[in-house]
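EI: anyone free to look at a 86-residue chain?
SC: sure, send it
EI:
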Amino acid sequence: MYERVNTVVEHAEVTAAIIEQVGKDTRCGWLMNGRSNGNDHSNGNGDVPATEKQIGFMKRLKIEVPAGCTKQEASKLIDESKATAE
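SC: here you go
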């Protein structure tokens, strides 16, 4: 990859900066899609189970935790609860 970019840019420092940024962008994409090195504990359809911390917070807020609650669902329920409390 370095050689391909460097043939266009023709400056080693700029090429290295581009490669570094591409790596960061790739990692951000993985995080935004809920994939962290393949260890996301996915249940097969891309839904990641709610974390213990989310579930504990939901219980403190007296939010009923649905069976099979995902991180996304938990976040939405927590946000809704906080919005109604304000």
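EI: The chain has four helices and no strands.
SC: 👍
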